[in-house]
């Protein structure tokens, strides 16, 4: 374990890394926890935040009947999660759970007050059934909720553009990402389409496209500062998956700089993942345990986690995820230099 961590440290400090002292967000590989809202993983969501993980996932259902953002794995009409009715630091770890998305964000805001210098945390939001803009539950309303709850603690698309670039793609290719150090105290929201909407034969306008269109249109209207999240292209693929996903719509492609797919598909098939690091895109590799040779999906050894982190850093991952909530903060907070 010590040798592996030492190798990772050498990677971070090596003379060939121009940003060795303060690597950019696009130049590191970190570890995230799948479905961190589940009570079987953490009793309270604040404990998921305590875990040291660089990515935490929330599954969100738009409940158009009650006009609520539900957080649950499989129940669109109820909440089943470890988010609690806590709005202040003193209320954390003690209140009733099974709350809605607004309470999850309240927990994050309260926890942020206790840990203002925490490393950046990606909040991966899977919109299980997608948005319902016709019912007033669309990207605008999502942005408003996040802004109301978290204010300036969110790193937003407008900040990557920096008033210099006209698309997120142009900003990423210029490696305009800030350093990890400058993102202390920040959350970064990643949006992916949900399993239910993708399986719905009558729904062809998924979360990724809807939020990508949202970004494009906000920028055209001079309102890009209102956007709170980055949409991700979902699914491991060779080449540029945006060209396949939106073969006839080039206007939306430049608004995607997050990519999210199965680690084993990327690596075991042998896709050229250098595309992501060359262009400084953020690549989320899921089910990291299943890359050959497979390790435990829940509680591998510390040495196995370190080896998997180093392996997928070489395969250009930005964040690797699995159900490793049993691991200590010293393990889940590990980072390596991204090749």
Automatic annotation (TrEMBL):
Gene3D superfamilies associated with the record: Phosphatidylinositol (PI) phosphodiesterase
Mind telling me which residue stretches traverse the membrane in this protein? none
Sorted alphabetically, the keyword list is: Signal
Task: Give the GO biological process terms.
Answer: lipid metabolic process
- N-terminal signal peptide: 1-20
> GO molecular function, one example?
phosphoric diester hydrolase activity
Query: Which portions of this protein are annotated as coiled-coil regions?
Result: none
Query: Is Membrane found in the keyword set?
Result: no
Does the keyword Magnesium belong to this entry? no
Protein name per the record: Lipoprotein
Q: Which species?
A: Streptomyces roseochromogenus subsp. oscitans DS 12.976
Upper taxonomic classification of the species? Bacteria, Bacillati, Actinomycetota, Actinomycetes, Kitasatosporales
